[in-house]
Amino acid sequence: MAVDATMDKASPAEGRKINPWLIAPVVALAAFMEVLDISIANVALPHIAGSLSASQDESAWVLTSYLVTNAVVMPISGWLSLVLCRKRFFMMCIVGFTITSLLCGLAPSLGLLIVLRAIQGAVGGGLQPSGQAILSDTFPPHQRGMAFAMYGMATVFAPAIGPTLGGWLTDNFSWHWVFLINVPVGIILMLLIQALITDPPRLVEARKVRLRDGLSVDYLGFSLVALSLGCFQIVLDRGQQDDWLSSTFITVLSITAAVSFVALIIWELRCRQPIVNLRLFKDRTFATACVLMLMLGFILLGTTFLIPAFVQSSLGYTATDAGLVITPGGFAIIVVMPFVGRIVGKVDPRILIALGLIITSTALLYMTNFYLDISSEVVMLARVWQALGFAFLFIPINTIAFSNLPIEATSDASALINLMRNFGGSIGISVASTLLTRRAQYHQDVLTDHAANGNPAFAHYLDKLTTLMPGGPGYAPASQALASVYDGIQQQAALLAYVEDFKLFGVVFLACVPIVLFIKPVKNAIAPMGAH
Question: In terms of residue numbers, what domain contains 378?
């Protein structure tokens, strides 16, 4: 498919008179709605389980089913955009997402809700990659930095506000509104997309070229994508609950994911018209950007899980208050990201990426100083500090990712880099949850060994504590003292586990700084071809 290189320098509007700044917030809102749905339902799970007569473990499949199908569709969205036309595919995603959101809110049983969430994840999987490609074609090079800043603000703010919004809707209305809130937004988006967005002529021509000799569908490639990514997502989401490889179910899925993933790589690199364009990874800069985006998702969603969990379990915050602790970090990104969008064409993106990595990692290392009497303001400011680093990462990473790729690779590249971020987030949550549980148990065992009757210091402390207990009918002071000690051990063990998680995340992110050296100098940093 030949594409004139001069098209990249032409106005992306390609004859349309619609102001591109009307299109950017529409695309950003669509991405916000889809990303929000990943996190907004988390806090509603206990209410869903109670309302539909299910266990907490069973209700967790409401999240897993969404993530699995979302992960399967995302990497093939570039191919679907080309075959169906990008606007048509984008509109289909919005319509499908809106309808399934309505049906999820009305679901009478858990089984039906899980099925509907799986469909919702599938139809929503193309929203982010398609939205990026639309922005790339809508804005001229000198404006793309600011356009992608707007898009990045939406996709970063969504997971930050999700738990807070979900908790508020559940507490004040019902869990049904966690899904029903998408319906009016989806209807508005349908009208705006129909009125504002058109496919550029070059994309229409590219579709004609692809279909001229008949459509060739990579059925094997799609099957391997579904099998490998679907199984891998289930392993990440359910592994800790099922005790990882101690579970036959998780072991079988892990082997299936590994074998099918290797087969996918071999097949797609040999296929003439692959459904996932893995050849893009031959570009060193794009491959490096994908690694950085994977790690960014790892840290972003991993810590978005850890901080609310810490303040809820160790400090006694409600779900809504826990969400409010991390929300200011989202506002910090909204403030700083437009600044980054303005300077990304004037400052070497590698410098901005290194700066973002250092800022975020130092914030995480600072979080190792958290303690049980810490104030909410300190936790909030630590999150803001961390978020400032994120603001210096999203736009520069996408700038270098698309800097050396041909214009016809935009949709495929957007699909892959979004997939890397999403999977990085899934890995981050899984690692954080697993380490938290296991290290808390380890520290509890160590502390319990010290709290033994053979320890003179402990015996003396227990005697003193017993004298302070009020006692009463059925409440022996000695038993109350032991219960108090055990409660303290559990709290300290959990605190040590959280601190170790923060330390691990900080060290891992700091270790990513040398990766920047693999990035080739970007000649035209002001014209990124994709976005977060």
Answer: 293-532
